[in-house]
Design a protein that fits this description.
Rossmann fold, 7-stranded mixed sheet, two-stranded antiparallel sheet, single chain, 2 domains, 11% strand, 58% helix, 492 residues, alpha/beta
Length: 492
């Protein structure tokens, strides 16, 4: 080591051009980091594509479960196409007269969007590099316009013009705004002065979607400098202080009117206001900054958030339908057990037939929830539920034994009494059947919860689950319903 540090130490002047300065090192480091970020963003984008394609290709929904979800399912396919085409969607919102369409036209540099309310106006454009489509959303009185622009590589930017937020009622406005905003990657909310209540509420609703947003203060050319800045400060410091940062507020003049001197026919001069050059450079730079910073990661994240939301809706729909079907199965089992017990005068047969029907109900429910279960497994589950039900099962057993004995005695004495004892027999039979039916209903509800949870009792265990479900049951109402339906069946 000592020899390496001897008089052979090189002179710095020997390598004047090979020593990088700090700026070069910083630049190389930044490029390396950016390159890594690009690779990571591309990987995340591919993962999102694959996950969404797998979801679209493997929708496990019956025709009944698809009912009411057609729009969401179609949206999933649309979002997958969006990923495949690398489309960045920018949606504009605002009240009529705020210059929302003018802002989009200024960004495009062409008058594509109709300035003013959109009420079924037919538009045809030819020979342009962009594509224009017009859609009608359910429940809206106006159309949504989309303009797709080719961008660098295979990517595209899609601008979406929505109906004025004051053209539709509050509920429809919220639904439409959420539907468009969930799919878009960047939201523009256009105002033209101090905000009113409708604008604030709409902005708050859109903010809840969690997408990048810019508040565009348009028509600044119509205000003197002092007034314009006063309005800007009021919006920034009071109106949207809890919703947006100052960096997310941009001032523009999308369709400014410029005063020009003109000569009248009589030779005198006058001042006229004519359309001037749009002042939207700050907005363009802000949009480019967001797209450059977020890029594909933004599109992938937004797509997966939307897909996850739709997937949750599909799961909820599936569970709702299964829950309804399960309740029908349970009630059918309850009434089958009630009729069997009411018509059978033998105590032991009452107990055995009731257990057989409960096991059959459990097996049917397991098929509904797609969980394989054998008959011994169903018997074991019934035993576990019965043990967890504790006192209720014991009460049912005592009632069944006592009422069955009385029912048997009344049934046997019917010939001797000339049928007089059949009246009390039916009353006792219906009561006994009602008690057993309530118990069967509880067993069915516990089984449904167990299967819906993936054949698991959860962290609290079976006793807690059973107790919670039984506490929620209205036993008197269930008993009366069983008695009424059973009496009608026995009388007929």
């Amino acid at each position: 080591m000592s020899r390496l540090s001897s008089d052979r130490t090189p002179n710095a002047s020997q390598f004047p051009s090979q020593t990088p300065d700090a700026t070069d090192l910083d630049r190389e480091l930044d490029n390396a980091i950016l390159s890594f970020d690009d690779i990571q963003a591309e990987l995340n984008y591919k993962k999102a594509q694959n996950a969404l394609r797998d979801l679209v290709d493997n929708l496990d929904l019956t025709p009944q479960e698809r009912t009411g979800l057609e729009s969401e399912i179609n949206d999933l396919a649309t979002m997958l196409e969006k990923l495949d085409r690398s489309v960045v969607q920018i949606a504009a919102f605002g009240m009529v007269g705020r210059g929302k369409s003018s802002v989009l036209n200024a960004l495009l540099g062409q008058n594509v969007f109709e300035t003013g309310p959109l009420h079924g106006v037919t538009r045809t454009h030819q020979g342009a590099s962009w594509q224009l489509t017009q859609e009608n959303e359910a429940g809206s009185v106006s159309d949504i316009l989309r303009v797709t622009l080719p961008s660098a590589g295979n990517s595209q930017i899609e601008l979406i013009d929505t109906p004025g937020i004051d053209e539709v009622d509050g509920e429809t406005r919220e639904t439409l705004a959420r539907q468009v905003a969930r799919q878009a990657d960047l939201l523009l909310f256009v105002i033209s002065g101090d905000m009113n209540k409708v604008e604030y509420e709409a902005l708050s609703q859109l903010r809840e979607v969690g997408k990048p947003m810019l508040l565009v203060f348009n028509k600044i050319d119509q205000y003197p400098d002092a007034d314009r800045m006063a309005i800007y400060r009021k919006i920034r410091d009071e109106r949207v202080r809890e919703l947006l940062s100052p960096d997310e507020i941009v001032m523009v003049a999308a369709s400014p009117l410029v005063a020009q001197a003109v000569r009248r026919p009589d030779g005198t001069r006058a001042v006229q206001r004519r359309p001037g050059t749009p002042q939207v450079l700050d907005l363009k730079l802000k949009i480019l900054e967001i797209l450059h910073r977020e890029g594909k990661a933004l599109v992938a994240l937004n797509t997966m958030l939307y897909a996850d939301d739709v997937n949750e809706q599909m799961i909820a729909r599936k569970m709702q339908i299964r829950d309804e079907s399960a309740n029908q199965i349970i009630w059918k089992g309850v009434m089958t057990k009630a009729v069997a017990i009411a018509l059978n005068p033998v105590t032991v047969v009452d107990l055995l037939s009731g257990a057989v029907i409960d096991v059959a109900m459990i097996l049917t429910l397991s098929k509904l929830y797609g969980i394989p279960m054998t008959q011994p497994g169903a018997v074991g589950l019934l035993q576990k539920i019965a043990i967890s039900m504790g006192g209720i099962s014991a009460s049912e057993l005592l009632a069944t034994l006592g009422l069955s004995s009385l029912k048997s005695l009344l049934g046997l004495s019917a010939p001797a009494t000339g049928g007089v004892s059949l009246g009390p027999y039916l009353s006792v039979a219906v009561t006994q059947a009602g008690v057993s039916g309530v118990s069967s209903y509880g067993i069915g509800q516990v089984t449904k919860t167990y299967l819906a949870n993936g054949a698991s009792w959860g962290p609290d265990g079976p006793k807690a689950v059973v107790s919670r479900i039984l506490t929620s049951l209205d036993e008197a109402s269930i008993l009366n319903r069983i008695k009424n339906e059973l009496s009608a069946k026995l009388v007929n």
